[in-house]
Amino acid sequence: MKLEVSLTKHLGDFSFDTDFCVDGERIGIFGPSGSGKSTLSNLLTGFLTADRGLIQLDRRKLFDSDAKINLSPDHRRVAVVFQHAHLFPHLNVRKNLLYGHKRTPASQRQLELADVTKALNIDHLLKRNVTQLSGGEKQRVALGRALLACPDLLVLDEPLSALDKQLKEQIIPFLRTTLRHFAIPYLYISHSLSEMRLLTDQVMQFADGRLQQITNADTLERERMAGNRHGYLNHLTLSDPHEVDNLISYRWGANELFLTANERLQDGLFGLSSKDILLCKKHPHAMSARNLLTGTITGIMPHKGAVGVELNCNGEILLAQVVSQAVAELELDIGKTVYAAFKASAFRRLT
Ligand SMILES: Nc1ncnc2c1ncn2[C@@H]1O[C@H](COP(=O)(O)OP(=O)(O)OP(=O)(O)O)[C@@H](O)[C@H]1O
């Protein structure tokens, strides 16, 4: 998807003034409260009309003030999922799901009801009244309804922020696989970098109604490592699990890692905090931590009191975090070899 935006909009004291062109399928919109994220979403969907400018989605002009083009929301083929599901309370789940689908010309309907209900695990809810759904179920129905409209662009405007942590952790893997599966390009608006890291490839960062930079969520999270009490979460794709002495052995590239056995035996993406990694200058011959990797230092990044130390462990990248005194005491430097130790219990399954 190629999205070209050049817009000006004044709303009271706030002015939104942005010019960008992005190419990609999974794009994040990030920025503090009041920076203009929802304004952008509303301008794209057509709920709000810009004072002047242009919105072009692939070859279609959705808005062009010079050419006097301003497609109505119904004709833009941009679907949106909000923080609250906004389902039609008088319709059951099935009718809610099919609402946009029925209004989409048959030639543009690439998805069928069964594909979507299966992917989102909501087929058992079809006859239910939407008032009898949990928060997570409502959001999945809202997403299903948006997907079934087969939009050219899906805008997800903080779709998980009303859900509790446990529900978010259940829904994120669903979202990841479903959105990939249906290959519908999307803009994902959120305050959460951890959601962004799992759901986007590039991120547009906004402040005061202006685009600051186009970057990615991983870079932003590294920059915020020192201020985050959980540190930076390394994402490790682990495979080939099997039980070894009450632990589970996983393959991480060319490395073998051990995780506590309360995990299910399944490949997946796991999180390991930079704060849970202990760096040693010499081989610690006896220790309780079950994981010890040799790493070559590839980066040293001071961030307000904390120092990120990037290691290459047999081709896999790991970011550890130490206090600045440790850099001098351990003589950490680019190219040096260190040992990284971490517990089998330090991992959290992400997908
Ligand atoms: N109709 C309006 N009239 C005047 N000001 C408005 C109007 N709508 C939005 N604003 C202002 O525009 C600014 C941007 O709002 P917007 O909702 O786009 O921010 P946001 O980045 O989505 O914030 P949040 O993360 O809190 O949802 C805010 O300062 C808001 O108060």
TrEMBL record:
Keywords assigned: ATP-binding, Cell inner membrane, Cell membrane, Membrane, Molybdenum, Nucleotide-binding, Translocase, Transport
Species, as recorded: Desulfuromusa kysingii
Record-linked PANTHER family: ABC TRANSPORTER I FAMILY MEMBER 10
Domain Mop: 286-351
Molecular function in Gene Ontology: ABC-type transporter activity; ATP binding; ATP hydrolysis activity; molybdate ion transmembrane transporter activity
Top-rank taxon, per record: Bacteria
InterPro entries on file: AAA+_ATPase, ABC_transporter-like_ATP-bd, ABC_transporter-like_CS, Mo/tungstate-bd_C_term_dom, ModC_ABC_ATP-bd, Molybdenum_import_ModC, Mop_domain, P-loop_NTPase
NCBIfam families, per database record: modC_ABC
GO cellular component: membrane
Residue ranges constituting the ABC transporter domain according to the UniProt record: 1-233
Stored PROSITE patterns: ABC_TRANSPORTER_1 (PS00211), ABC_TRANSPORTER_2 (PS50893), MOP (PS51866)
This protein's name: Molybdate transport system ATP-binding protein
Short name of one Pfam family: ABC_tran
